[in-house]
Structures are given as C-alpha cells and as structure tokens.
Amino acid sequence: MRSVKSSVKGSKTAAARVAVLIVIVVQPLGLAAVWPQEPSEPRLGEEFDKQEKIYRSRGADVPRGYVTGRGLSDYAELLPTGFCDALGKLGSSDRWLDIGAGAAQAILDYHASQDDAAPAQKCGRSADKARAVAMSIEDRRTDRWRDRAASLGDDRIRYLSGKRLRDYAPEELGKFQIITDVFGGFSYTEDLSRFVDKVLSLLEVGGAFYTLLPGVHLENAKDKLGILYLTELEDAAGRPEKVCSWLKQTACVQVTCESKSDWKRPTELINIRKVCSDVSVPRLKLWEFEAGYPPARRFQLER
Ligand SMILES: C[S@@+](CC[C@H](N)C(=O)[O-])C[C@H]1O[C@@H](n2cnc3c(N)ncnc32)[C@H](O)[C@@H]1O
C-alpha cells in the first residue's frame, strides 16, 4: 500500500495509528501491507469525508497531486495502445464518455477548432468528431469550455457534474462507443465492481473502455521490493488477486492489460472490450479506504 505521506493527514483512531505504524515498518521490506482484519464503518466514514474535501477543493487549496487538467496528449501516453486510433475512427453520430474528466481538457483538445492556438493533436484526429460527454463529481469547467461548447452548439460536448457515475440513470447518459477514465472513478471509487458494471452497461456491444490503474500487482511482472500499492485485491479466501485476473472473470468482455513495471508506480493500462450484452462482473467488497489522490483501497472478492 502507498506511503502514508501521500494520503490526507488527519486524526486517526488508535487502531488505525497502529496499522499505519505496521505499514511503515513492513513496506520498505517489500512485504504486503497489513490492513485491519475487519472493515470499520466509522474509519471508512472519516476517510470518505476527507476524500470529499479533495473533490471540493478550489484554487490554492487543491492538493498539488490532484491533477485535473490533463490534455489529450497525456491521455495518449497514459491509456492503452489503440485508444487514439479508436477515437480517430469515431464518426459524428458516435459518442465518447470521459469519466472523471476534471477540467475536460482532453475533450477540449479533441474538439479544438482548426485555428485554435493549441498544438496540433495527433491523437484521435479525423474530419468527423464524435459527441463527447465529460463527467466529474465537482464542476471544474473553465471559460474555455463554456466558449467552445457555445460555439460548437448542438450539444456536441456536454459537461455533467454534481454526482458520481453510479447515480446516473441509464437514460440520462445513453450508450457510448468509447469510455475513458484517466485517474477518475476507476482509481477513486469505493465500489470498484459496481463501477465497472456501470461502465460496461453504458458501452455499446463492440465498444471499449480505456483506463489505467496505478499502484497494483501487475499481471506479467514479479513484485519488486519497496512497492507502495494503491489498489489491492484479495480472493474470497484472502489470497492476493491481481486486478487483471479479476477483470478477466467478467462475462461478455475481452480484457487486455499492458503492465508498466518501470513506471514510478507499477501500473496496468487496461482495455476492456464489450463483446456481448450479458455482462456480469464478479462482486468486490470494500475492506479499507484511505483518502488521497488517488486513494488507497483494499477489496475482497465476495463468495
Ligand atoms: C484527479 S481528477 C482527474 C481529471 C482528469 N481525468 C485528468 O487526468 O486531468 C479526478 C476526477 O475524477 C472524478 N471522479 C472520481 N470519482 C468519480 C466517480 N465515481 N464518478 C465520476 N467522476 C469521478 C473527480 O470528480 C475528478 O473529476
């Protein structure tokens, strides 16, 4: 699990303080973090409150590590191979949803006008542009967004905020050919299986979800010493489970993982293609959550 210093500071219960001490001692040895045996509702509630403060932060209060302005070239670097080509193939009646869009710079770059001063975007370049929907819990729209939305008109770009992905009814969102998530809900949610289930329900059959997950046990690499994990999974018997093996148990999808073992944190770039409509994601239960950007989470597969 990750360093204590990158998480939000705050008062801890005595039990949590002991757990944190164990983590500090054990982690430099590269061993698995020691989490409490039982999820504690009050402690989780405290951490959720801290997480809300991060979402609501504004101006100078936004933590430096909470980045909300990545552009399309960042998405091209961070998302799995094939994302830019797939975006470039979308037509004007297709739809792209970016979950956890922050300031929605990636969508603005995609929909930049020809004479825009922004550097030419290689990613997703095409004459026809898909309709794009940016989703964020908090509203981080900029003046540039408002101007571009007004000049494009006809609802070509939309910004949704004020609630989480799980709170939208299917008819509010419709279906999409491409869904992306760059350090958005996939890295931040406290209900990972429900989140993936919802994403897949919004994809057309044949559509794809492009995302990444930092600080995980990699599919194709041995764990190195001293790694600070952010998202840890266990099977129902409490044995470590890799995020990609869990995703591959989902019905009606093809999952491809690109393991980045030489990045600052071991990171999986994940592409999930929906191949039929009866999707069923194996359920996970949240065992631990520590607020941060992104938060540290531990889940266990339900029996
Ligand atoms: C660190 S920012 C990333 C912004 C952008 N993708 C970027 O890379 O610059 C995290 C974003 O995820 C959003 N987010 C987190 N959990 C979410 C959820 N469950 N549903 C929708 N948005 C979520 C936050 O509101 C915020 O917009």
What do these coordinates show?
The protein contains 10 helices and 11 strands. The protein has 303 residues and is α/β, with parallel strands linked by helices. The strands form 2 sheets. The chain has a 7-stranded mixed β-sheet with strand order 3-2-1-4-5-9-8. Strands 7-6-11-10 form a 4-stranded mixed β-sheet. Strand 10 and strand 11 (296-301) form a beta hairpin. The chain binds S-adenosylmethionine.
What are the main properties of this structure?
303 residues, disordered N terminus, 27% helix, binds S-adenosylmethionine, alpha/beta
Q: Helix and strand layout, with pairings?
A:
Blueprint: H1 14-26, H2 41-56, H3 72-78, H4 83-89, E1 95-99, H5 105-110, E2 131-135, H6 143-152, E3 157-160, H7 170-173, E4 176-181, H8 185-188, H9 192-202, E5 203-214, E6 231-234, E7 240-241, H10 243-247, E8 253-260, E9 267-274, E10 284-290, E11 296-301
Parallel strand pairs: 1-2, 1-4, 2-3, 4-5, 6-11
Antiparallel strand pairs: 5-9, 6-7, 8-9, 10-11
The structure holds S-adenosylmethionine.
Task: Provide a brief overview of the structure.
By secondary structure, this protein is an alpha/beta fold.
